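--- STAGE predict ---
source: upstream dedup step, 1 unique chain passed
mode: sequence only
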Amino acid sequence: MNNQIAIAIGLAAGLLFGLLAAATGSSTLTNMATSVQPIGTAFVNLVRMVVIPLVATTIFTGVAGLGDPKKLGKLGGSTLAFFWSTTFIAIMIGMAVMKLALIVAPVTVQLIPAGEAAQELPSTMDFLLGLIPSNPFESAANGALLPLIVFMVLFGTAAGTLEDRYRTPLLNLAEAVTTTLIKLVRWILWTAPVGVFALAAPMTATSGIAMLQNLAVFVIAVAVGLFIFVAVVYLPCVVFLGGMNLKRFIEGSSEPVIIATGATSSAAALPAMLEQGQAKLGVSRAVAGLVYSMGAAIGRGGSALFQGTAVIFLAALYGVSLNPAVIVSAIIAVFLVSMTVAGVPSASLVTLAPALDVAGVPFSGLAVLFGIDRIPDMLRTAVNVTGHMTTSVVVEKQIAQVQ
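--- STAGE serialize ---
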C-alpha cells in the first residue's frame, strides 16, 4: 500500500475514533483516545530529531552547489532573481489568503499540548540580534533554527567561492549526509500512519467535528492561494516578461506539470521539462539546462506558499498571536527552507519546523497535516513546475534582449 494512502487512513481512523468519543460522551472512549497521545508525541519527536541536520545540510548543498556567485553571470543572476522574488510573493499570498479564510471561517482553537507551550514572541530588536548568535548550533539545540539557517547560508556561500579541490569534498560530504538523512526520514514516515492516528484521536475527542472543519478550511485556502499565485504572478510574467501567448505556454507546460502532479516530485518531471521547454517553448539548451536543474533544486514557489499558509493556520489553531516581527522572521525562515525542500514525501511539512519555531507555534499540530497532505502536495508540486517553465520563458526573453 502507498504510504501516503496509509497515512490518510491513519488520520481518518483517528478522526473517526475521536469523533465517536466526542459524539457519545463516553469516558471510556475518551480515555482510550487520549491514552495514545504519547505515541503521537514520540512520532513528533522522531521528525524533530532529523530536522536540524537535514535543514543544515540541504541548505549548504543548495547554496554551495551554485558555485561562486560571480561566475553565474547574467543567466544565473536572472534565474535566481526570478526564483527569489516570486518565492517571497508566494509566501505573502499564502499568508494573506489564510488570514482571509480565517475571517470567513474561523478555526476552533485547540489546547496547546502539554510540554509544548508557545514561545515568548521576540521584539524586532531581539529578532535581529538573534540572527547573529555566538553559537548557532546551541541556538538550534534550544529550538531557534533560524540563526542556524542564516549561518549555513553564509557558510555555503563562502564554500561556493572556494577552489574545486576544497569545495568538492565539502559538497560530497554534505550530499552524503543529506542522502542518509532522507533515508532516515523515509523510515520515520513509515510510522506516520500510527503517529497521525495517535495525534488525531485525542484532538478530535476534545474538539469533535470542529477539527474536520479546521482541516477543510486549510486545504481550501491552500488550493485558492495556489490558484491566485499562478493567475496573478506566473501567467502575467509569461505574457509581459516572456512575450509568449498563454495557449502556447500551457500546451508546452502541460506534460511536465501532469507528470509532476502524479509523482509529487518536480525532479521526476525534469526530463519532460527539458524536452518540452526546448521543443515547444523555444527555450535554448543553455537556459533550459540551468533553469530547470536549478528549479528542481531551489525553485519552490508552490511549496513556499503552502508553508506560509500552514504557519498562519497552525498559529490560529493554537491561538498563538503573531506580531509583525514574528511574521517577518517566519517569512524569512519559510523563504530559506522552501528553496531546499528535500525529495521525500511531505518534505514541505518536515522542513516547516524552523518557521514554526520562530513563530512560537507548537509543532504537534503539524503532524496532523501529514494525513491530508496528498492533495496539497500534488497541487504545490504542479505549481513548482509551472514556476520552472515560467522562469525559463522569462529568462530566455531577457537573455535575448541583452544579446
